[in-house]
Structures are given as C-alpha cells and as structure tokens.
Design the sequence.
C-alpha cells in the first residue's frame, strides 16, 4: 500500500496572522432612579463612551435600562462565555477601568497557572520542544573535567 | 500576468441583471417563480416573465419604464413602525438597506479588519445562505463559488510550493486541514459569527442566516420515531451513479482530475449544471426546503467573504486576508502521513532516485537484556545516512528510521518560495520546483 493520509483540521494561532479581539460584545445596564447608578449614568453621557466605541470598533456595544437594579456591565466572548461586573457606586473613571478589564480578558475562567506550565513550548505540554529531545547517544557529548585541565570523554 | 481591473467588475457583478446573460439565467426566470424571487434589489427592476418570452420584447425591455416601487422605497415611505416590521417580515432575508443599522455587522467588519472598500451590504449578503433566501441576487451563492475557487487556488499553491514533494494523498489531506468544511466552520466560530435561529427579513443582518436541517433525533410529528430512523430519501435524485457505485477504480490520478480539491468525489459539476440548468434550480430548491447543516452554511460564508473581498478590494486584499486568516493557522503536515510498509516504500524510492538500496544499521543500543531496551537504528544508502529512529525493539527502530527517511524526502521544503499567483509584473519569475511525485508501489 502506498502512503495514506489522515484528515485533521488546522488550529488557530490568534495574532500570528490576524488578531481577533476575544471580547465581542459589551452590554451596559443602568437605572434612572437608583443612586448606585449615578456613576454609570455619568459614564454613559460622558465622552468616554463614544471614545471607547471609536477605539474598539470590533466590539458591539449596547446600552439598555435595568430599572430598580444595580448597574452592570456584561461582556460576551468569542468562546461563548460571559463575564458580568456590577459597577454600583463606582465613579466613571473606575467604570472605565472595569470596562478595560473586560475588554482585555480572553473569556476563559481565571485560573491559577501552575508553576510547571508557565513557560510552554509551541504546541502545548507533552509536545516535543523546538530543540528536540536530548539523547545520550548522539552528538559530541559532554566531557568530564577531572581537574587536570583536560576534558576527557 | 496582466492585472485585471476588478473595480469595474464589481459593479457589474453586484448589480442585478436586467437582462438574461446566459442559458442558466434565462431558464431561471422562465420557470414560474414565487413573487419573492422577483424582488428588485435597488432601483433597477428585475425582468418579469412575459418580457423574456420572445426576442421581440427585448426592445421593450430597453425602453425606460416607470420604475416599480422597490422594497427600499416602501421602507423609506412607511413611517409606521408596524408597517415597516410587516414589510420586513415578508422578506426571506434582510434588505440591503438594513445593513447600516446593524451594530453587530459593523463590529464584525471591524473585527476581521476588512478593507473599507468592502461595503457592509456585501458583508451582509455574504451572511445569507441560499437555504435562507433562494434568490441568487440576495444570497451568497455567487460569492461563495468565486471564493471557493480562490481558496482552493491559494491553499494548493501555498502547500505545493512549500512542500513540492508531498504525496498527492497527503496534499489532499493538507488541503482539507487548511480549508476543509470543518476548518471553515471553526474559523466562523472564532470570528464570533452567530447563527440566527431562523432566517427572515426582520433578523439582524449581522447573524449568519440559514435554514437548519432537522436534527436527526427530532421526533416525526410527535411520534416516537426519530428523523434518522426514517428510510433515507436520496440526497440528490436524478443523479448519475458515482464512480465507486459503478465499480470503477478510483486511483490517485483520477482523483486529481475528476474530484474536488480534497479528493472527494464531486456529485454534480458545473458542466452538469450548464448542460441541464434545471438541475441547478432543483438543487437550490431542495436546499431551500430541506435546510443545510451549520457546517455547510459556515463554510459557504467564509468562501463568500473571500470572494466578496476579491471583487470589491482586489486580488491583493483577498490574498492578504487569506494569509492572515487561513494560512497563518497551524497544521503539522508531518503528522498527516500514514505509512503501511515504510521500508518497502523507502527501497522503491531509493531505486527510483538512483541511490544505493537502503540498509539499516544499529547506531547504538542500551539494555538489550533489560525490561526497557533502547535501540537506535539508522538507515543508510551507501555512506549517506537517510534517517534514524529509536525504539524498544530492533524492528520498531528500523521502521521508525525508514519513516524518518521517507518524511525527510517528502517534506523537503525550499528556503524561499514565491507562489505563482503572486508573480509580479516587473520581476522575473523564478520557476518553483516540481517533483516527480511519490513512489508507486
């Protein structure tokens, strides 16, 4: 039998070619009457919001009332997850910080990165490293310095 | 290669045809169509049936007639919200004027960094599958036909120029890996495109609109029977039996010539459609009634988008888009190989290339008598080492060494390659390597 082939799919490398921002939608909810929405309401009427939408055109921004509730920001991500932050009693500058936090998030749950995984070779854990696997049978080998100024093999 | 002036094309291709240009179009209009198919796209009016019956009426077509009120006119005039809604609901897909009202659509435009010359209306049209709107002036079928060809061309030349010695089967699998329907579906998902629950004129144009095929485990009319348990109706009636059904041999060469670019058999070709145009309508109608899978709709969308970019912004923009979104994805081509008898393949290859016949020799070993022995075996042709491999038995190591040698040959990649479609006018074209192909065993 000649050579056969296996079918797979290619995997995305976001940012290697095009970069797709993972946050795709931001919903701002406010209340007209509750005091906890004061900062949110001033954020929504301030030039911060138009500036935000101009600098991030790839995010779909929607604003809707949520009467008799605290103001929230809801972000939807490409992986299908949502993140919600309640911004009650916050000033507009503080709200902007929260918005930036949501915008820059990847949508995944925040998990502690364990020590062994901090530096990862291309392709993930268990894959061969770029430099290959070290083998004792190949190459020049490393000599042992016996303290006589000469390396013996 | 002479650069084509695509800007001129885009207008001609996008504007609705007022006269039938070819046999297929004539027949499309001659068949009794529902009112929706005669929906005018903008100010130009689609030809109605009676005007195409005879050649004598051609003159009448050319004469200026009072234009019929279009959907856009009606929408503009209707101040009542309920009236607008009812007009929109009567349409199978959102009218082009709605494209500028959709935040979702313009966010998608920005997210993909599409060229500004690609208007939102065209992006919206790319998102309408033929199963949602059967009218070819409003769905993405023409875009996706062009985009599919472009995608096939760009991907195949990229793979072939990068790996000129790749066996044909692996080449097909690599094509499937880069631009197969599964990949295009995941690309659509990674672009953040959502699929509308049901298509319609009132739906936000930023959603991918398609009519979904019924789920296999849905019950039939409230009975306990599931859809997948029903006897299967032929997917495409009036269809020629496939080569496999006729008992013909489908070799690799036949697949290169007759099949699509993944090596799968084509059920109906463009030639079939040209010979019997009613087949085309029939297929479209069936898709419209039966619905399509999400995979079909999403891969059509990606292809249509590439076609639309090519039409509006030109060849270079389309190629850059392809490079950024499809070629930049990771595919380990060396993992696509599946060898059956690598040692025999290698000796055939050496015989063909005029090398000495390959000999396996132990390079080193450890723990032969232990529970975990390791042998390192090299395959040599004369004094040249072709490949080496390690394994816990001599045979395993020898086979790994042969696979390594074969992959080393087949995965040869020249350092700097320019693909044929990127040949420029001023520069001299350096021909790329074309190899004899894989060994025939």
Sequence:
């Amino acid at each position: 039998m000649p050579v056969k082939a296996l079918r797979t799919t290619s995997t995305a490398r976001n940012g290697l070619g095009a970069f797709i921002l993972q946050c795709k939608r931001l919903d701002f909810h406010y209340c007209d009457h509750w005091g906890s929405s004061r900062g949110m309401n001033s954020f929504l009427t301030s030039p911060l919001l138009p500036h935000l939408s101009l600098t991030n055109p790839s995010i779909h921004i929607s604003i809707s009332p949520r009467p008799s509730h605290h103001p929230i920001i809801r972000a939807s991500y490409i992986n299908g997850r949502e993140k919600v932050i309640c911004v009650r009693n916050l000033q507009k500058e503080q709200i902007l910080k929260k918005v930036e936090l949501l915008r820059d998030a990847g949508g995944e749950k925040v998990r502690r990165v364990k020590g062994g995984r901090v530096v990862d070779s291309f392709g993930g854990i268990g894959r061969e490293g770029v430099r290959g696997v070290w083998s004792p049978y190949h190459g020049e080998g490393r000599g042992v310095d016996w303290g006589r100024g000469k390396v013996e093999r | 290669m002479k650069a084509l002036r695509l800007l001129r094309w885009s207008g001609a291709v996008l504007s609705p045809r007022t006269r039938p240009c070819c046999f297929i179009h004539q027949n499309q209009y001659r068949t009794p169509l529902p009112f929706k198919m005669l929906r005018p796209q903008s100010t130009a009016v689609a030809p109605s049936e009676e005007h195409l019956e005879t050649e004598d009426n051609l003159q009448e077509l050319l004469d200026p007639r009072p234009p019929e009120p279009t959907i856009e006119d009606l929408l503009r005039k209707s101040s009542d919200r309920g009236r607008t809604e009812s007009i929109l609901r009567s349409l199978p897909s959102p009218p082009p004027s709605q494209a500028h009202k959709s935040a979702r659509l313009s966010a998608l435009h920005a997210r993909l960094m599409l060229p500004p010359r690609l208007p939102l209306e065209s992006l919206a049209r790319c998102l309408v599958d033929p199963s949602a709107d059967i009218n070819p002036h409003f769905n993405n079928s023409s875009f996706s036909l062009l985009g599919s060809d472009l995608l096939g061309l760009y991907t195949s030349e990229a793979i072939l120029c990068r790996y000129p010695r790749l066996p044909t089967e692996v080449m097909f699998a690599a094509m499937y890996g880069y631009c197969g329907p599964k990949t295009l579906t995941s690309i659509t998902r990674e672009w953040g495109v959502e699929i509308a629950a049901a298509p319609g004129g009132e739906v936000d144009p930023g959603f991918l609109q398609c009519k979904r095929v019924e789920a296999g485990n849905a019950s039939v009319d409230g009975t306990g029977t599931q859809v997948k348990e029903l006897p299967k109706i032929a997917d495409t009636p009036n269809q020629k039996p496939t080569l496999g059904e006729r008992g013909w041999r489908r070799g690799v060469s036949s697949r290169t010539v007759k099949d699509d670019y993944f090596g799968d058999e084509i059920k109906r070709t463009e030639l079939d459609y040209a010979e019997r145009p009613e087949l085309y309508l029939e297929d479209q109608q069936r898709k419209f009634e039966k619905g399509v899978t999400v995979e079909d709709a999403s891969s059509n969308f990606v292809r249509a988008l590439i076609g639309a970019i090519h039409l509006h912004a030109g060849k270079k923009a389309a190629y850059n888009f392809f490079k950024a979104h499809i070629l930049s994805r990771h595919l380990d081509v060396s993992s696509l190989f599946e060898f059956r008898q690598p040692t025999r393949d290698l000796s055939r290859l050496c015989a063909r290339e005029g090398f000495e016949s390959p000999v396996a020799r132990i390079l080193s070993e450890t723990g032969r008598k232990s529970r975990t022995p390791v042998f390192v075996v090299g395959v040599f042709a004369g004094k040249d080492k072709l490949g080496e491999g390690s394994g816990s038995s001599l045979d395993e190591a020898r086979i790994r060494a042969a696979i390594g040698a074969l992959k080393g040959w087949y995965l040869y990649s020249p350092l700097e390659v320019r693909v044929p479609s990127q040949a420029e006018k001023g520069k001299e074209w350096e021909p790329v390597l074309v190899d004899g192909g894989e060994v025939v065993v």
In short: The first strand of chain B starts at residue 337 and ends at 338. The beta strands of chain B are 337-338, 359-366, 374-381, 384-391.
